[in-house]
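Hello again, I could really use a second opinion on something today. I've been staring at a protein lately and its backbone has me curious. You're getting the sequence in one-letter code plus the fold written as tokens. I'd be grateful if you could look everything over and explain what you see. No rush at all, and the record is pasted right below:
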Amino acid sequence: MIHAVGAANQHLYARQLDQMFRMRHVFYVEGHGWDGLTSRDGKETDEFDDENAIYLMSVDPFGDVAASVRLNPTAGSTLLQKFHDWSDEPIPKLESVWDISRWIAAPKHRRSDNPRWPSNHQRELMVGILEFCQTRGLTHLVMLAELRLAERIAAYGWPLRYLGKPREYEGGKGTAVAAEFEVGQHVLALTRAKTGVMGSVLIEIDPFRVASKGPLASAVSPSPELRDVVAEIGADKIRALVRAVAHDLAGAEVEDRARAIELIGAFNRLLETAACGLEDLEDDRERGAGGETSSAPAEWRASR
């Protein structure tokens, strides 16, 4: 899944943000040796990692960042505006245009280690970028990027045009280009067809819906998708599956016991989060059938 992380909810992603900034240090500072980068304690940041920045993170099942990208509204300061001389056109400052930068992936998800670029996480990230643009009503993204990244984006079918000529930087360390590309429902549909990612991948947690006290379930209602799945599979079977997986993880011989514990905790939070919605759904179904309303098993509500 692709998590949208901004100033309002970044406190929920401390570990992932730390990973992302360390990945940026390894890739840009150690790998590329770019001049003028600021890095402290092995984490690369700059002035555009501000309160307006949104990070889209592809997070794997263990909670680790597989790939990420940064987005900044052009109504504020952006990377391309700082290096505006790379563009032959005025840099837009519009609510409908954002700047995209710092596209980074974990080593095993990069092209050099995976000839099937983009990897599954990168494919989801591409879809997530376009889904995020839909939520903000964006029409275009602009960027100053490595030429090879721009060429890959164009080759993948995104409507991209150069705003200036590609040219070398820092004495031949690489070649970069200023570019703009369209976003919108038409590009999202094309990308879904090319990637095979048909379902929604974007998650943007609203911290105001996360209760400061009591279970998260009190702030959650089941989505139509969840209702359909529960109706087809049955809530009891879903509970049994989650309990069985958690039981297996608890008894498994694994090298990283801490990760296994994290997964068990994640399953417990899943139970806690979804419990209220599933119970309501079952109540609705049983009332509709004229039956008695039953309470959820004790195991389901143990943490509530």
In short: The first strand starts at residue 2 and ends at 5. The domain at 2-207 is CATH 3.40.630.30 (Aminopeptidase). The mean pLDDT is 79. Residues 18 and 43 are 7 Å apart (CA to CA).
